[in-house]
TrEMBL record:
One of its GO terms (cellular component) is membrane. It is found in: Membrane. The lineage of its organism: Eukaryota, Fungi, Dikarya, Ascomycota, Pezizomycotina. Its main location: membrane. It comes from Madurella mycetomatis. This is Amino-acid permease 2. One of its GO terms (molecular function) is transmembrane transporter activity. The keyword Transport applies. Gene3D superfamilies: Amino acid/polyamine transporter I.
């Protein structure tokens, strides 16, 4: 593998690629490195799909500015092209932070993981606290379900704390994990947006009649 410090100081600027080269040689290193880039691009595709779908859903329910624009369905492809381009532009803009600061983009990535965990955590906590949950045709029973929910809550809380912790010691202004600050900003912005705008327009999930649905169907993979 070689000295970890030498890997970090690799002339290629890619410690992982240098690790492959040291361990396996030139040809396997190229294959494994290109495979990694391919996997990252493949992962980005469903991310773009789910993100643009979320933008479309918010626009359909009049939750974001210019909703009429973002919820528009292309008559040619029957897809929300405007919502896809909006999310793609936001995604590119955020990822440009990686060219400026590793600390900044690291905080964004950590917040994405924490936010995903929170999206799982909230409905599980509501189920445990309020107990109003309609079982499906297949379930694990009351006792096992409760135990798994408690484990899920504990795990998500644990992972939330882990992704907010610093990744290097000693902690300095340059290597501090600012994920908690970014997460707090997102919560404050979302709360402010809801109380100043969203609650005045949002009346529940939008519905469409059968006739209009035939003309606005969205293609999915």
């Amino acid at each position: 593998m070689g000295d970890p410090q030498e890997l970090l100081a690799s002339a290629s600027g890619q410690p992982v690629a240098q690790l492959f080269f040291n361990a396996m040689g030139r040809a396997p290193a190229i294959v494994f490195t290109l495979s990694g880039f391919a996997v990252m691009n493949l992962v980005a595709v469903p991310g773009l799909q789910s993100g643009s779908r979320t933008v479309f859903a918010f626009a359909r329910d009049d939750l974001i500015p210019l909703s009429r624009v973002w919820r528009r369905i292309s008559p040619r492809s029957r897809t929300p092209v405007a919502a896809v381009w909006l999310y793609a532009a936001l995604e590119i803009t955020v990822n440009l932070l990686g060219l400026v600061s590793d600390t900044a983009i690291g905080a964004v990535f950590n917040v994405c993981t924490v936010a995903l965990n929170v999206s799982y955590l909230v409905p599980i906590v509501c189920k445990l606290v309020y107990g109003r949950f309609e079982r499906g045709p297949w379930h694990l029973g009351k006792g096992c379900s409760w135990a798994l929910n408690v484990v899920a809550v504990g795990w998500n809380l644990f992972m939330g704390v882990v992704f907010f912790l610093p990744v290097k010691l000693p902690v300095t202004r340059e290597n501090m994990n600012y994920a908690v600050a970014v997460f707090a900003f997102v919560l404050l912005f979302a709360s402010g947006f809801w109380y100043t705008h969203g609650r005045h327009y949002y009346t529940g999930p939008g519905t469409q009649s059968r006739g209009s649905l035939q003309h606005t169907v969205v293609r999915t993979v």
